[in-house]
Amino acid sequence: MRIVILGSGAGGGVPQWNCGCPNCEAARAGRIPAMSQSGIAVSANGRDWALINASPDLRQQLAVTPALRPGGLRGSPIRSVLVTNGDIDHVAGLLTLREGQGFDLYATPAIHAVLSANPMLSALDPGIVVRREVALEQSVELAPGLAARLFAVPGKVPLYMEGERVETDLMGEQTVGVELEAAGRRVFYIPGCALVPDWLRERVAGADALLFDGTLWTDDEMIRAGLGIKSGRRMGHVPVSGPDGSLEALRDVTLGARIYVHLNNSNPLVDPASPERAQAAAAGWQVGHDGMEIAP
Ligand code: MLT
Ligand code: MN
Ligand code: ZN
């Protein structure tokens, strides 16, 4: 299996257009790497690829990823796109894929319903872009030799669908994790997750790699930095640090590789020189970067 992290950042990316926080300023100045918005590409054979999540930065991500360039006059090695929720940072890039190219678009029925409610996405010609509903725990072949199984993780509906009362640890079709399998290798991709319950620890145990929600280091970091009024939990993201954080929850779980993805610009982990990065590394975690490739 080959995996390319197309975008390692959360919604907004690093730097975020309207943010002057120290990380965003450091990224603008080139002192730390910029991070585009969240998504990966996966292949079992190196020729046929699946995208998981389509970020608003997709056009540029494809341009700088040699494996995803057209092989001829027209065409693309991208066979399918799977989205793990309806968040803008995971679906707005679908609009970039509208130039008369066929592929399969996979999502749960609930996420498809959100996409279908948006008339702009009908720019994806239904004659060639086939919307395929995937039930939870159903296995589908995203590309030759590459199987995926979706499972519910604690999360919430997309921000633009929030009502007055928001449940942030819903278990259903709105936010899913992906279990990928190719040639006997098993990888989990979970870019959004509000909690790490015991069943999740057990499910990912023994995998060759885990790419996991690294949005925030501490639950209240955006509030304390004066960047916003929301906690991580309110946004549906478990923090990395702390007694209930993912670092601690996954510490004793056996994994081939563990990589944080979907990092918010407020997270000290985006700075390679930060003490937090060293602390995560000591627990075996890497921090994903744009263009990072792994072959689990
Ligand atoms: C998230 O991951 O919390 C969302 O992408 C937030 C957003 O839609 O901006
Ligand atoms: Mn997001
Ligand atoms: Zn910032």
Automatic annotation (TrEMBL):
Keywords: PQQ biosynthesis, Transport. SUPFAM superfamilies: Metallo-hydrolase/oxidoreductase (SSF56281). Pathway: Cofactor biosynthesis; pyrroloquinoline quinone biosynthesis. Residues 49-262 form the Metallo-beta-lactamase domain. Belongs to the PqqB family. HAMAP family: PQQ_syn_PqqB (MF_00653). May be involved in the transport of PQQ or its precursor to the periplasm. This is Coenzyme PQQ synthesis protein B. It comes from Paracoccus methylovorus. The gene is pqqB.
